[in-house]
Amino acid sequence: MRANRKMAQKKGWSFMDKGPQLNRMKELFNPGSVAVIGASDKPDKLGFHVMKSLTRGGYAGRIFPVNPGAGEIMGLRAFPSVSACNGCVDLAIVVVPANRAPDVFRECAAAGVKGIVLITAGFKEIDDPGGGRIHSEIAAIANDAGIPVIGPNTFGMINLLADLNASFTPEFSLVRKGSIALVSQSGGISHLLGFMAMRMDLGFRMIVGLGNRLNVDFAEMVAFLADDPDTRVIVLYIEGIDDAAAFVNAARNVMGRKPILAYKTGTGRVGDAASRSHTGSLAGRHAIYTASFAQAGILTMDTTETLLDAAKALSAAPLPAGPGVAVLSGQAGPSMAACDVCEAEGLDIIRFAPRTQETINRLLPPLALRTNPVDMGPAWYDAAAIKGIIQTVMDDGNVDGILLLMMFASANRDAVSGISGLLKSWRQRKPLISCIVSPPGIWDEAIRGLEASGALVNFPTPERAAQAMVNLWRFRKMRQEAPAAQ
Amino acid sequence: MRANRKMAQKKGWSFMDKGPQLNRMKELFNPGSVAVIGASDKPDKLGFHVMKSLTRGGYAGRIFPVNPGAGEIMGLRAFPSVSACNGCVDLAIVVVPANRAPDVFRECAAAGVKGIVLITAGFKEIDDPGGGRIHSEIAAIANDAGIPVIGPNTFGMINLLADLNASFTPEFSLVRKGSIALVSQSGGISHLLGFMAMRMDLGFRMIVGLGNRLNVDFAEMVAFLADDPDTRVIVLYIEGIDDAAAFVNAARNVMGRKPILAYKTGTGRVGDAASRSHTGSLAGRHAIYTASFAQAGILTMDTTETLLDAAKALSAAPLPAGPGVAVLSGQAGPSMAACDVCEAEGLDIIRFAPRTQETINRLLPPLALRTNPVDMGPAWYDAAAIKGIIQTVMDDGNVDGILLLMMFASANRDAVSGISGLLKSWRQRKPLISCIVSPPGIWDEAIRGLEASGALVNFPTPERAAQAMVNLWRFRKMRQEAPAAQ
């Protein structure tokens, strides 16, 4: 069975010339029409939820529900088979049982389908060798026909910019549109990150659940996203990779052009074993993974939260030119928490240029911390002083990035509106990462406005803000050190 | 100046017998009446915000605004001095300038005031030696009169259970009442943690900003909270401690009785220097701190987020009897992320008892992960199966704690309500830490209900849920290993 799988992969479309491969990926993610093979109007069927995702997600192309037993599904005429759709189907979303997949794939190939999302589970991840045989069979059909396949054993994929929700979770359409592309080996982690993004108001460009990776693996996705003009940050959740060399090569080609962030689980004994049975891949050897990731310029992250925080910063902030950070804080404590993270992770809490320091000394009373970090607290009542401090630090050539930390107090309620104009007009000429926090509902709207205008990128704790700045610098540094070929 | 301070401390009321000291602390935090010395009706004065905190926070005792120039403040008759209040003042909140503090303190002592919150800044934290002199002067007055003082250089303190908001931030009254007591050396961090608590719906028993610690330091607070029946978890934010021995002794006395969690910043060069000037204490030597913390049974935390997560778990979950954890998940990926954290931090992903495993094998199809961790995904449509799995794992003697991870999908919308009855009736006979996440608004209310009923403690990511379980075990293990004298 292992040999079978290897062979199927060798024949895979991913070894075709790069040009046509990328075109087929584009077609897969941007179909003019979609068929749901196994569409249903029964809420206990996945085919029901997929139809809901497509119809409610705002997809503008034609939708073909395919189900031989139905006349109409969700107000749309149903078709008995994909062949009956008269060659009009670009993308087929397949939710029929595993044993029917080979016939469906043959039909799709014959009908000129350009891409398949195979949601069905029960292939090589199960103990029954029959699952592996079907996997090989449909891989051969897809590869011969040059059809890229997302799945099997996946929730699907969502191209948010195209309003295409080809998944069994209609709620993914609630994720804001953005420039972060998520490619994940786990449906659970994809859902988690999607819901976290909703709660963080973070925008995604697409969400792709690779599942068992019939012929679209991390390597193919990275190559595709590297050239995708709408993708600014590539985010990967990895459990195990079959063809590590192909992946590392693909990543190396992107090195320095776009950040690739990877969160790989399975560091322990249990995760290792679970990954093997979960997606049928050879996981394990965590250290080997992270070493080759580093060589390929991939930034590894160690939690879902850090992963999204880094993606948020890299999608919305410029890169610092160097490791020199200024910490401006409305209160001393948060600045210490931020400085600890910066210093532990290779950023420098730099010394200000003499002119900057003179200005700050003029604007702050002697009872404040006036060197870096700067405790602006004693000047909270003086909007002009606060603005003067921020402005002089922005202009300081020693400063590569600014951390701005402000906690609400009743007496400083107007502090955010007082500096909004300055921050908006400056538009992060250097990265401006903030942790501005208030009781719910007081500053939230103002912060969203500042983020939307590109004035800053905000995080809920000083440590997470500092860590985001660290990750901006990690990417910049990696890019500096990348081979000249880039 | 150093010698002066030392002397003032040696004379301090904290060296009195334990009994009266604790009584005075009780009086400080539970006054029958409060005077605001420096009360104001001008929003640009701290005395305005303190008055707002007191009057809007629901405080039931009498409030005396003290301001010689005012007739009435916020509808309350103003008094020209604390002496004019006829000996009726239990607690004085002082917001007059530093140079007026000695006179005010003498008046308070003469008027029989039982406790002082000194919000004013500008004492020993400033470069001017005059600040240090005033500090010593008022310390002597307070110590001679046996008056415990919170501050100077603090936002104040909030006894949430008494509806007493003695701070310049009225919004602190929005924090839910609970059993976590926060004692902090930074106003900024206190505000941050308070706002985080509001957003996490976490309940606090009190929030105390120690400031420059005239005569109430961490040692006194820990001793008081150790005996406070309403405090279940003691949370400390520390920058530097003057009298480390007193603190360690106080903590050692609590060892194993109540968890003490400490987050100490100033690990780097900058934080060290900042701490010195910020609160006038000898910070630094981070390694020495953490070593003595460990010996005193204090659990050190490394971020504000981990600190609150651990406090949440310890305030609401029972302790695990051992390190054996079961991971039950609706999807495989999140369980791997959780297992990685557990394994790295000393928890065991145990093997189930044979009977448990047989039951699970009966309830799950072979295409699931059925040993620990358990991927319950394939049984999502079968509420009885899910309940059967959870029940058998609850009953397994090998299992000391359960991690329950569930991501929403359109098809499992009823999953939470399906298990609510079981979880509520079980009432965490072992710790049940969960990461149950949905798009905003779908499961949030149900999760809050489960938390309120004591059925589980929920966290927003699998890693944070696992880390909370780790911290429950850290406390239990420390307690087991604590000297028999406890």
Describe this protein's structure:
Two copies of one chain form a homodimer. Residues about 1-10 of chain A have low confidence and may be disordered. Helix content of chain A is about 40%, strand content about 20%. In chain A, the strands form four sheets. Chain A has a seven-stranded mixed beta sheet, with helices on both faces. In chain A, strands 15, 16, 17, 18, 19 and 20 form a six-stranded parallel beta sheet that branches. The first copy, chain A, has helices spanning about 1-10, 20-30, 45-55, 100-110, 130-145, 185-200, 220-225, 245-255, 270-280, 285-295, 305-315, 330-345, 355-365, 385-395, 415-425, 445-450, 460-480; strands at about 35, 60-65, 70-75, 75, 90-95, 115-120, 150, 155-160, 165, 175-185, 205-210, 235-240, 260-265, 300, 325-330, 350, 375, 400-405, 430-435, 455-460. In chain A, helix 7 packs parallel to helix 8 (about 245-255), helix 8 (about 245-255) packs parallel to helix 10 (about 285-295) and helix 14 (about 385-395) packs parallel to helix 15 (about 415-425). Chain A starts with a helix and ends in a 5-residue tail after the last helix. The relative contact order of chain A is 0.08. Chain A is α/β, with parallel strands linked by helices and about 475 residues long. The first copy, chain A, has two domains: about 1-315, Rossmann fold; about 320-480, Rossmann fold, CATH 3.40.50.261. At the A-B interface, helix 3, helix 6, helix 9, helix 12 and helix 17 of A face helix 3, helix 6, helix 9, helix 12 and helix 17 of B.
